[in-house]
Amino acid sequence: MGAMEGIAQGFQVAFSLQGILFVLIGVIAGTLIGMMPGLGPISAIAIMIPVTYGMEASVALIMMAGVYYGAVFGGSTSSILLNAPGISGTVASSFDGYPMAQRGEAGKALAIAAISSFVGGTVSVVLLMLFAPMLSQVAVSFGPAQYFALMFLGLTAISSLSDGSTTKALITATIGFMTATIGLDGQTGTSRFTFNNPNLMEGIDFLVIALGLFAIAEVCFLIIKRKDTSLSDQGDIGSLRLSKEDFKEMRGPMTRQSFLGFLLGVLPGAGATIASFIGYISEKRIAKNPEKFGKGSIKGLAAPETANNAATSGAFVPLLSLGIPGSGTTAVMLGALLVLGIQPGPLLVQESPDVFWGIIASMYIGNIFLLILNLPLIPYIAKILKISRPLLISLVIIFSLIGVYSISFNTFDLYVLLFFGVVGYFMRILNFPAAPFILAFILGGMMEQSMRQALTASGGDVMALISDPVSISLYVVSALSFIVPLIRTRKNRPAA
Amino acid sequence: MLKTMNQKVSIFLILLAVGYLYAAYNLKKYPYVPVDADAVPKVLGYLLIGLAIILFFDKSSETEEDKEKRDVPKKEIPIMLGVGGFIFLYIFLLEILGFVVTSALFIFGCSLFLGYSRHVMNAVVSIMVPGVLYVTFTYLLNIILPQGILPF
């Protein structure tokens, strides 16, 4: 069967009445689960696996695609409306989404998120169809040295994540990296900075830090402003309708980040989180008005939303072509495929083209349904903002606490959450940006491991880190991404 | 001596880095490991000291907006500490009384403490939200939350 025939067959299955019904169920279930504190696409897919028992493989996969995209969108809503990102991939969406919601444009922010997600997801599915076998070869050629260079590129973006002092951004990033070193060392098994506390052996979970620095810190400000009724008194949550100018502003980031996000998603381990941060940062770097970022910029919201969705499709490249899951979500997806009796790998496209193309077609359909279903629901979802402040404060605290508890089942993590909430509050009042902390926490641990693996493999030869064209190119891009904004800032500085 | 807030913060950061470095130097070392577990922490510790020193001598002055951010009304401090106390109590009681009872008490008590005066609505939300969350997590998602004193 040729590729075109395969695609046609895939779409035929996806567009059947049964296919449409199950994608509908999947999108609704995924969105609801994704909105739950602490539950992201991984949990959503895992939870839905038992539901697919006995189903026809192609239909089950269509439902899974709906669950997947629904969960990613559901995660964005809590980021945008409450500044409480439930999963790491939606942290960057809160940088501009939350300020937009705060100034009464919650509907618009959610619409931008939905449309950007749709574009990112759809473009990347087309790219997946075209380049899956070829890109998988490139992805597996990435070794520890190349990953180190990639993480380094991510870290050079730290200065872009701060409006004010670069020193402060670097300080918070350093502390974020230091926090990532807590726990058992992956290479030697040394217990680092745990003070013999068994609860710290596995390190601190990302969610504890993200909810602490963002949601609990925000609660402190909500407490101070709890009598300010300006937001809840608004007659509306703002129109969902986007103007021509809004679309014009979204067009650039959506186009660029669809491609960049997809490429980053293809790399095993990079995934939606790094794609969303790099998407946000790269758009800020090239923006004409970078000062608008972090204050409710349309580009600042469209970029990470497009990138994280594009990356989620990109992550399917190594899964479908090589049978290697490159992210947590695709690992669970691999489990789901195996349960359905499908073995992903190089032979999948030859032996079961209907399944291969069926999965891709179902992702496309999942995206369309997500948009059709969620846009009308946005006014109801955004009503969260109209809840009275004292009640909203209590609910945000409960959601954060239970989100953390549901991943660790340990009350110690709740105390750590409270601690990071206090840290986040002080960081905000002292003008230390929280985003570099999160970025360094996520990238730092991976960067350290990649560097040490590369050096162990080369017997301690530092040149191993800079000896191949891919790494050198990444270092050059890193240097440029650090130097170019500095030159631009100097040029823009008025003469004394 | 410490005139600006940046200087006060930088002293705190230096103390934090020194403590971190002390712990890093006391990590167990292994022979024949090209980069041991203490290498990166040591670099990070010294980097933080360096950055804290730069911050100490940072001459950029604070804007009025920056100062305003720090200006928390004194009467709000006990309220914030009170909410912190509520959270502590919640964490302590969560596994004893169970998710539904503790959460219901927390939502009602905390909202009341923060000045929410619609008591009937408060009571309905306090019971409904934990109830729905408990049923969803425990029965639909198979994520077991503490049952506590309730029989289900």
TrEMBL record, chain A:
One Pfam short name: TctA
Keyword terms, alphabetized: Membrane, Transmembrane, Transmembrane helix
Record-annotated DUF112 domain positions: 20-439
Lineage top rank: taxon: Bacteria
InterPro entries recorded: DUF112_TM
Membrane-crossing segments per the record: 12-33, 45-68, 110-132, 144-162, 206-224, 259-281, 355-378, 390-408, 414-443, 464-487
Secretion signal, residue range per the UniProt entry: none
PANTHER family registered for this protein in UniProt: TRICARBOXYLIC TRANSPORT PROTEIN
Name of the protein this chain belongs to: Tricarboxylic transport membrane protein
Organism ancestry: Bacteria, Bacillati, Bacillota, Bacilli, Bacillales
UniProtKB/TrEMBL annotation, chain B:
Record domain DUF1468: where: 10-146
Record-linked InterPro entries: DUF1468 (IPR009936)
Transmembrane segments annotated in the record for this chain: 39-57, 77-93, 99-116, 123-145
Pfam family, one: TctB
Coiled coil feature spans: none
Record keywords, A-Z: Membrane, Transmembrane, Transmembrane helix
Name of the protein: Tricarboxylic transport membrane protein
Annotated source species: Salimicrobium album
